[in-house]
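User: Let's play a game. I give you a shape written as tokens, and you guess the letters that built it. Ready? Here's round one.
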């Protein structure tokens, strides 16, 4: 029974990620213009663009806070004998858009932030989530995040049917500056890494 429940949660989370990646495949470039933030405590980002073969840009992908920062995105090909340039060429024009929301939540006793993956290149899925600072490094796989969503442990979590995603952290990490990283992979073994420097509130 427990194994069936975990399988259902994993399948649901993967389905949500697949739908997210399929919906974000239309746009080949993202350019956001900054404006005063509508929601205090929200940090959102669009990625630095992987060099594109074409010059078209689409301005439709705006974050809800109206604030856009450039986050670093890396592309890596893990197949033997391949170079980063070939990965950049094959992933030309693809972008990742992740919104991080640190708005305080009165209903939770934990320190946390939420994140939403709004855009993902076609064929990629979430593989690993990381918090990296001078004092701490926390790595969670997709499966570990689903387990944390069920048991409420600190670290990255995905709960419900994949609708809620975030990062629970202890009081000791509050005020710490570091990088939140999301690693995505595809069937060919290529990975894309999205990262942003934030201060935990």
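Assistant: Ready! My guess for every position:
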């Amino acid at each position: 029974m427990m194994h069936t429940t975990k399988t259902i949660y994993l399948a649901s989370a993967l389905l949500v990620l697949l739908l997210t990646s399929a919906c974000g495949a239309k746009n080949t470039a993202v350019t956001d213009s900054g404006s005063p933030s509508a929601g205090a405590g929200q940090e959102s980002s669009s990625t630095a663009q992987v060099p594109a073969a074409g010059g078209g840009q689409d301005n439709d992908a705006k974050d809800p806070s109206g604030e856009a920062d450039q986050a670093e995105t890396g592309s890596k090909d893990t197949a033997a004998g391949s170079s980063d340039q070939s990965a950049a060429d094959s992933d030309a024009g693809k972008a990742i858009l992740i919104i991080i929301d640190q708005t305080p939540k009165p209903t939770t006793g934990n320190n946390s932030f939420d994140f939403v993956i709004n855009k993902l290149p076609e064929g990629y899925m979430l593989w690993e989530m990381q918090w990296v600072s001078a004092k701490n490094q926390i790595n969670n796989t997709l499966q570990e995040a689903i387990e944390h969503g069920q048991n409420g442990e600190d670290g990255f979590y995905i709960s419900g049917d994949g609708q809620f995603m975030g990062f629970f952290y202890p009081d000791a990490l509050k005020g710490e500056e570091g990088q939140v990283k999301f690693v995505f992979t595809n069937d060919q073994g290529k990975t894309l890494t999205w990262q942003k420097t934030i201060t935990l509130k």
